[in-house]
Amino acid sequence: MLSSVSQVLPAVAQGSSSSSSVLPVSRQRGLEVQQAGLPARHGSGCRRQGLSSLSLAAATWASICYRRRASGAVLSQKRHSGPGRSCGRASASNGSAGTTPVVPLGFGDSSSLVEVEMESTEPEALMELFLGLGALSAAARGNAQPGKPVETVLRARPNDGTPLWERSIVSGMFPAATDMAKVAEAVRAAFDFDELPDLGQPRVVEDIDWVEHVQKSWEPLSLGAGFRVLLPWHDGPAGGENSDDGRLVLRLEGGAAFGLGDHPTTQGAVEFLERRFGDDARDGRTGRRVLDYGTGSGVLAICAAHLGAAIAVGVDVEAPSVASAARSCQMSLLPSTSRARLEFRLSPEDFSAAPGFAAALAQELGPFDMVVANILRRPLVALAPALAAAAAPGAVLALTGLRSDLGDYETICQAFGSHFEAFRERPLAGGWLLVEARRAESRS
Question: What whole-number distance in Å separates Cα of residue 429 and Cα of residue 79?
């Protein structure tokens, strides 16, 4: 373990007096980690497996905050302790007692970028460190061993201590003027390596308009049998109107929230809703109450409202997703064409609090007779009591975000078997699957 932050960057802290060699304070950024081909957002807390959170906080703090200010101001260290994390944070002060003077280590112009990579058994810690050293972005991916496929661990919570992969490649995108030798030394010191790590040959990143590039890569999407997803920059009809091919247009905000319609699980969940509401129309049934647990972009709840739900509620543990879903709802529903009560709420992160939250929601709005959840196996298993508490007797259940090649169907049947019955497996594209079930008439 590092005994003091002054040990982290010995080479950087010595003889670094010119303003052309400074390490700017970098804002902590959210991290995107590729899991099963999907971006999964992780917060910027100082988390690490195998090294204490206090040691990581010291390493990250030292790498971020050693810089000199012409005014003589210094930065003081503040730690915030929360569940599963200990974070170093920077704040400006005027040289009061107990603060650490900062030494500048600057990188110059950031208009051109280079990317470096290295292998790591602690990818999240290394990503945090790269960001603290001035990287504009950091990412990790699985690194397959010879003759073995990449095995991805899908987490129930962001602060789950399970390693993402057995072997990982971490990349950092830095301003081109960055002194990579000093970055390598900072990594060596923070991780207590005997030798300098191999960052490989920096790759020059093409200077393009990334916003325009991303927008061009997203074409309008067909969702289910009857919907068309348009993002804010797409030309076309307003949300709630019909496209040229007769599909109902949904205007979604896009962004970090999952569920725009490009993934097989979202497609499968929407097709489930279309089938169920189609059956209702033939049977003359109305007044469905639909719960979308883990709503993400809100697309499933919005589709349910368009298909005829009387009440559709989307819940999510992330406040930005809830806010984004509400804005997408405003863009996608026309008051003249939808009579549904559609709303989005923040749900508790703690799985143990979820059943109480779901029961209170059912008491307020009435038990839900249709429950959908597009998450992943492990959180779905943990949420089984909550989804049972929300569901009315005889309610239909649809769970996806599941894999057919990992035994997820059997796991779901076992986890939900005490509350639900009549399980059915529906294969989806790419090895994904959707599981349907019915709430037992006797609520246990």
Answer: 46
Left (φ > 0), alpha (ψ -120 to 50) or beta: where does 246 sit?
left
By the 10 Å C-beta count (0-12 exposed, 13-18 middle, 19+ buried), 160 is classed as: middle
Can you read off the two tokens belonging to residue 123?
Answer: 């990818």
Query: Which residues, in sequence order, are bridge partners of residue 75?
Result: 92, 100
Beta bridge partners of 438: 396, 421
Angle between helices 53-65 and 180-191 (to 10 degrees): 160
**Which of 197-211, 285-299, 342-356 shows the lowest mean pLDDT across its residues?**
197-211
Is residue 374 within 8 Å of 259, Cβ to Cβ?
A: yes
Listed in sequence order, the DSSP H helices in 133-207 are 180-191
Identity at 380, one-letter amino acid code: L
For the sheet containing 341-346, what is the strand order? 341-346, 311-316, 289-293, 368-374, 391-403, 432-439, 420-427
Report which of residues 56 and 181 the model is more confident about: 181
Q: List pLDDT tens digits, range 397-417.
A: 999 999 999 999 999 999 999
Residue carrying the six token digits 């559709």: 312
Domains of the chain: 5-206 (no CATH), 257-439 (3.40.50.150)
For residue 336, give every residue at least 6 positions away whose Cβ sits within 8 Å of its Cβ, in sequence order, or none.
none
C-alpha span between 414 and 82 (Å, rounded): 33
Look up residue 7 and give its DSSP letter: G
Residue 10: DSSP 8-state = H
Contacts of 42 (CB under 8 A, 6+ apart): 30, 31, 32, 33, 124, 158
Q: What is the DSSP letter of 353?
A: G
In whole angstroms, give the CA distance from residue 65 to residue 104.
9
DSSP state letter for 278: H
pLDDT tens by residue, 365-388: 999 999 999 999 999 999 999 999
Structure confidence by residue, pLDDT tens digits, 170-205: 999 999 889 999 999 999 999 889 999 988 888 888
Query: Going along 286-419, which residue ranges are E strands?
Result: 289-293, 311-316, 341-346, 368-374, 391-403
Model pTM score: 0.60
Q: How confident is the model at residue 419 (pLDDT cuts 50, 70, 90)?
A: very high
Tokens 């971006």 — which residue?
Answer: 39
